[in-house]
Specification:
The complex is a heterotrimer of chains A (about 500), B (about 110) and C (about 500).
Chain A: H1 3-11, H2 17-30, E1 36-39, H3 41-58, E2 72-76, H4 103-110, E3 114-119, H5 153-160, E4 166-171, H6 177-183, E5 186-189, E6 209-214, H7 217-227, H8 245-250, E7 259-263, H9 264-267, H10 274-290, E8 293-297, H11 305-320, H12 342-349, H13 355-368, H14 374-394, E9 400-404, H15 420-425, H16 431-436, E10 440-447, E11 453-459, H17 465-478
Parallel strand pairs in A: 2-3, 2-4, 7-8, 7-9
Antiparallel strand pairs in A: 1-3, 4-6, 5-6, 5-10, 9-11, 10-11
Helix pairs in contact in A: 2-3, 7-17, 11-13, 11-14
Chain B: H1 10-19, H2 26-43, E1 71-72, E2 96-97, E3 100-103
Chain C: E1 4-6, E2 12-24, E3 39-40, E4 43-44, E5 68-69, H1 70-82, E6 86-87, E7 90-92, E8 94-97, E9 107-110, E10 117-126, E11 129-142, E12 146-150, E13 153-157, E14 164-170, H2 177-193, E15 206-216, E16 226-231, H3 234-253, E17 262-266, E18 271-274, E19 287-288, E20 294-296, H4 299-308, H5 313-324, H6 328-335, H7 338-353, H8 358-380, H9 391-402, H10 408-421, H11 425-432, H12 440-453, H13 455-463, H14 471-482, H15 489-502
Parallel strand pairs in C: 16-17
Antiparallel strand pairs in C: 1-2, 2-14, 2-15, 3-4, 6-10, 7-20, 8-9, 8-19, 10-11, 11-14, 12-13, 15-16, 17-18
Helix pairs in contact in C: 1-4, 2-3, 5-6, 6-8, 7-8, 7-9, 8-9, 9-10, 12-14, 12-15, 14-15
Classes of the chains: A alpha/beta (about 500), B alpha+beta (about 110), C alpha+beta (about 500).
């Protein structure tokens, strides 16, 4: 079901906001996926009742003013909501109740959305399988025993398992696109700076972005439009105030004028499993059949992407996480106050970090320390510019780049945990878009023999988000019969 | 601290953990040193990239969208207090004494 | 005071001093958030209850981000232009990472290799020597909170966290404590003149750290330096530096080595003390702050700021000397504080209105201000506007001086009382009877009385007037005594001489 259809049901009085909210809350509470860390039942029901009052008064849904009226969403537990516990899936913040609301959520709620609760994730967004949560892993929505991908694992599972209508995830190196691909939902990372990071607990400031995870491309576009635009509270947002994302997304692509770039470095030595390779090839052929031109392009610095990421992201993270010290908020280990000195105090408090977080903080601290800064951090930033230049060059020859999201489909829980480097290499296709600040999305394009979903990634130049969504939407609509189970309607 | 890029030993792991105020057990030091060693070995591939020298040296890219820092008008606005008159921002403070955040004695 | 320190062995050392001044900027809001930076309901930020002046941003809650205050950049540009610096049109904020309870983010947002201003100078004068002291850089950064220590625990107050600072770093070009004091006073005058700093030393608006080292005279190799932090007055900075120079020389002389460390100054004992327990090798891991990055300033902005600068202390001082005929010393004292200079100029304006030209009024006013008044202002560490003196006190006094209705002694007495009570000049003069007697018909009888009472001296003078000319002074003194100091001494000289010679 789509937002427009839900609004129709509200108008026709075949569904009330309270009903749809109660249904989702019940599903969330009953589910065994461990997708939710906090369910805000009272708050959500209050919002729902107020919305129904508005509906009664207005006679119908005020769609222009409140484009997300009565739509129950769930939010990755990395974004703050005033008065609602925000844990970032970490023991360090197990009891943290923020005194302010993130801009992204504030905009969604101002547009009429209902917040059902906060979603499980990898601790501080560090991970690719949602196995790094301090509160237990998230279950794959359709294949028990498999990982949903990370770090927005809870966000993807909740959408696919119909525990919420749509969700917010965040993407630093692929954390929306990877779980979207593994779980069979739509996930979009917008252009860097399009959605405010105010209230997004920072992992890597120059890479993090908030994005929607939905069942349909159209609704991803709706959510994106509501959230996108300059925020005076975030110095890294675009100066532009509004983006007509939805209207652009609803346009039919001009197929004969569309050039789709195929990065040579992604396919030839990509190490894709045969099934993923086949699904991607099939998708590309479909585009060709519509009239689009497939253009081979080269992104020569692709092979450095993971290295750059694992220096830049962890360096920024090591600094961003320094504020977790148990002084002004957060959990304070009982032993901490007995520590003989300040250093001991901090160490006791910060022993609450999980091992992946610790590992990355150490790596980041190392990369920034004197004697190593030039060789690691500075150099990584220089090669990052070369990665961006590659894309700028490629986009003179094509309008959109198509690529896999991941080398494989979802893997079994526990399979990759012992080898962090292998986990990091899994992000090879998604990281470049974060390094270059480009919009990138994942849309389901098939499944493997076990029925595990495969995602097709589309990337575009900065600010081409609307166009990207229009191509994805056309693809999705054409393939909706193939991926029918993913599009079944909301309960009525 | 100076080591050849790509090499990390247990001593360095401990030093860095100390800088980051992280407690690491002996087992963790061993594990991290080995894992970080693998990661750093992989990362040395960056040293093969030609980043130019002098005037032609490539400018590091810090932010993918290169804007100039937006500036805010100089207007003051207090975050405020709750009904008891306590600063709203301190609601989640773990330990408060005399209106301040309490920490162990600092020499 | 010589900047060469001679030791018993005859070896000579010279001192090398660099100063880092942290100047709090007088903006309404903090540098990266909208919390008030100066006053909250009439009280200064440091006076209100702890943490009342804090928000999620300056308290570094997860997810918060900095947004730069435009005024901070403007004030930094002002500081740079007033000190002849080059303004960097592209400058960068960097994170300085370290853990301390009063540093909520675990890093300070500061500037590292691309500061906003570089390569300026200020002129200082010690005695009659004028020197240009280089200013290496000026950069913007945020202030930290305050830790309050109470025996078994410490509490953190973040009211001050995020207050904007400029850090002004001199070259290691100062050679003595006296020069350091002169530099601080000159810099203080500049930042208060251009209105970027409130200049309240008690409230910590202007804080100085001194880097001090010594080396053998003529050496090209700098010695190891010690940093003296947290000294709150110019006088104490000078004393701390003096002590430290001597301490370092004696350590070296004793065969020891200077340790690079942080020290504080104990005013009671007049010594510097090592803070080694706080000191450890800091690796600040500076990197450009990805939440802010590049501050861009265009030529038009720089020009606007340049045009808006007021007359700077050096320009004012030159004008006082060249156009008003003041001594370099007096001009220096008056321009040392913008408030004092402003007061001085108001007095001159009042005098102009009553027909006394600035050129003739300037010296007398300066005399009155640079003596007792300046001393008291220094002692109480206040600005003249915080005292009970008003420009009218000075202009009235000078008018009386010019008409000889007041003697200079009388003027001193007058100001002394005015300082305490703030009463109008006319009230004080009449009540205390300060009016100088310049009326010949009143003076002659007094002179006659004194002459009659001192026949010996009269005889001695008349016998040899040229040799005993100084006896006139004796008579002047006697008449002054007899008139309770109210006689006009200038007039007395002539009248007495005439009277004595008349026989």
């Amino acid at each position: 079901m789509k937002i427009s259809e839900i609004h129709d049901a509200f108008d026709q009085k075949t569904l009330s906001v309270l009903q749809i909210t109660q249904q989702y809350l019940a599903a969330a509470q009953a589910s065994k996926h461990n997708a939710f860390l906090t369910i805000c039942d009272q708050r959500a029901l209050d919002q729902a009742r107020k919305a129904d009052q508005v509906l009664a008064r207005e006679g119908k849904v005020p769609r222009e003013k409140l484009p997300l009226f009565g739509i129950p969403l769930a939010i990755k537990d990395l974004l703050t909501i005033e008065g609602v516990r925000t844990t970032c899936a970490s023991k360090m913040l197990e009891n943290y109740v923020p005194p302010y609301t993130s801009t992204a959520v504030a905009r969604l709620e101002a547009a009429g959305a209902i917040t059902l609760g906060k979603l499980n994730m990898d601790e501080f967004a560090m991970g690719g399988s949602n196995e790094n949560s301090a509160f237990g892993p998230v279950e794959h929505p359709t294949h028990p025993g498999y990982v949903p991908g990370g770090s927005s694992g809870g966000s993807a599972t909740a959408v696919k398992a119909k525990l919420c209508f749509a969700s917010l995830g965040t993407d630093t190196g692929g954390s929306i696109r990877l779980p979207a691909s593994y779980c069979g939902v739509v996930g979009m990372k917008p252009t860097y700076g399009m959605i405010s990071r105010f209230g997004l607990v920072a992992f890597a400031s120059s890479l993090d972005q908030v994005g929607p995870m939905t069942e349909t491309v159209e609704d991803a576009a709706r959510l994106l439009e509501v959230m996108a635009g300059n925020d005076p509270l975030d110095s890294t947002t675009t100066p532009t105030k509004n983006f007509p994302i939805l209207s652009e997304a609803m346009k039919e692509p001009n197929w004969s004028g569309l050039r789709i770039g195929i990065p040579q470095e992604y396919t030839s030595k990509g190490g894709l499993t045969p099934e993923v390779d086949r699904a991607i090839q099939k998708s590309l052929k479909w585009f060709e059949a519509q009239g689009a031109k497939l253009v081979p392009v080269s992104l020569p610095h692709t092979k450095y992407a993971v290295s750059i990421y694992y220096i830049v992201a962890v360096s920024e993270a090591s600094s961003n996480l320094s504020r977790m010290d148990g002084v002004r908020f957060g959990v304070r280990n009982k032993d901490a106050d007995q520590a003989p000195n300040l250093a001991g105090f901090y160490k006791k408090v910060r022993s609450g970090f999980g091992p992946e977080v610790k590992r990355r903080i150490i790596l980041g601290t190392f990369a920034l320390s004197s004697g190593y800064y030039d060789a690691y951090y500075k150099r990584a930033c220089q090669v990052r510019r070369l990665v961006k230049n590659d894309f700028d060059q490629a986009f003179t020859q094509c309008d959109v780049i198509a690529a896999p999201v991941s080398q494989s489909t979802a893997f079994k829980r526990g399979e990759k945990l012992s080898d962090p480097l292998a986990m990091y290499l899994n992000d090879i296709f998604t990281i470049p878009a974060n390094l270059a600040g480009l919009p990138a999305l994942s849309v389901p394009c098939g499944a493997d023999s076990r029925g595990l979903s495969i995602g097709l990634q589309l990337m575009g130049p900065q600010y081409s988000d609307g166009k990207l969504l229009s191509v994805a939407r056309a693809f999705e609509v054409a393939h909706s019969a193939d991926t029918a189970t993913a599009q079944s309607g909301a309960r009525s | 601290m100076s080591q050849a890029p790509g090499k990390i030993d247990e001593d360095l792991t401990r030093k860095v953990a100390e800088l980051a105020r992280l407690e690491v057990s002996d087992a963790e030091v061993k594990l991290f040193t080995s894992q970080l060693g693998d990661i750093l070995s992989y990362i040395t591939q960056l040293s093969e990239v030609d980043v130019g020298t002098g005037d032609r040296e490539i400018q590091p890219l810090i932010q993918p969208i290169e804007l100039s820092t937006p500036l805010r008008q100089d207007v003051a606005r207090a975050f405020g207090v709750d009904e008891q008159g306590n600063p709203r921002v301190m609601k989640s403070a773990p330990e408060v004494m005399d209106g301040g955040y309490q920490v162990p004695p600092v020499l | 005071m010589s900047h060469q320190h001679r030791l018993d062995t005859g070896a000579e050392f010279e001192a090398v001093i660099g100063l880092e001044v942290h100047c709090q900027l007088a903006t309404e809001s903090k540098i990266f958030c909208s919390c008030p930076a100066r006053r909250v309901e009439g009280k200064s930020v440091s006076e209100i209850a702890p943490n009342l002046n804090s928000c999620p941003i300056c308290a570094a809650h997860p997810g918060t981000l900095p947004v730069l205050n435009r005024k901070v950049v403007e004030y930094a540009i002002r500081a740079g232009l007033a000190t002849h610096c080059t303004i960097a049109k592209n400058n960068v904020f960097a994170r300085k990472n370290y853990f301390y309870p009063d540093l909520p983010k675990g890093y300070q947002i500061s500037q590292y290799d691309k500061p906003i201003c570089e390569n300026g100078f200020i002129e200082i004068s010690t005695g009659s020597v004028l020197r240009k002291i280089p200013i290496q850089r000026i950069h913007m950064e945020e202030d930290a909170g305050k830790s309050v220590h109470s025996g078994s625990y410490t509490t953190v107050n973040l009211n001050r966290a995020g207050v904007p600072l400029v850090e002004i770093v001199s070259g290691p070009d100062l050679r003595s404590a006296e020069e350091a004091g002169a530099y601080l006073r000159a810099l203080y005058a500049i930042v208060t003149y251009i209105g970027i700093c409130d200049g309240n030393l008690q409230e910590g608006n202007f804080r100085c750290d001194a880097n001090v080292s010594v080396m053998p005279k003529g050496s090209k190799v700098l010695g190891t330096r010690a940093e003296i932090k947290n000294v709150n007055s110019f006088k104490f900075v000078e004393k701390a530096i003096e002590y430290e120079i001597v301490r370092q020389i004696s350590v070296i002389q004793g065969g020891g080595k200077i340790v690079q460390e942080t020290r504080t100054y104990d005013a009671d004992q007049d010594i510097t003390i090592s803070m080694r327990s706080k000191e450890e090798a800091h690796d600040y891991r500076y990197f450009p702050d990805p939440d802010l990055v590049s501050v861009q300033i265009d030529d038009a902005w720089i020009e606007r700021v340049r045009k808006s600068l007021p007359e700077l202390p050096e320009q004012k001082k030159t004008r006082y000397v060249e156009e008003l005929g003041l001594s370099v010393y007096d001009a220096g004292v008056l321009t040392g504080s913008q408030t004092l200079a402003g007061f001085f100029e108001q007095v001159l304006e009042l005098l102009e209105k009553s027909g006394i030209a600035a050129k003739s009024g300037a010296k007398p006013v300066a005399n009155l201000l640079t003596g007792e008044v300046a001393r008291r202002l220094n002692e109480e560490a206040i600005e003249i506007t915080q005292s009970l003196l008003k420009p009218e006190h000075l202009s009235d006094a000078v008018q009386l001086l010019q008409s000889e209705a007041l003697s200079s002694t009388g003027a001193k007495q007058l100001l002394s009382i005015a300082w305490k009570t703030g009463e109008k000049v006319s009230v004080i003069v009449s009540r205390e009877g300060l009016t100088q007697v310049s009326d010949v018909s009143t003076l002659e009888p007094a002179i006659d009385q004194v002459i009659a009472a001192n026949p010996k001296q009269v005889g001695a003078f008349r016998a040899a007037p040229e040799e005993n000319a100084k006896l006139i002074g004796f008579f002047v003194g006697q008449v002054m005594k007899a008139t309770g100091g109210k006689a006009n001494p200038g007039m007395l000289q002539e009248l007495i001489k005439t009277r004595l010679l008349k026989g």
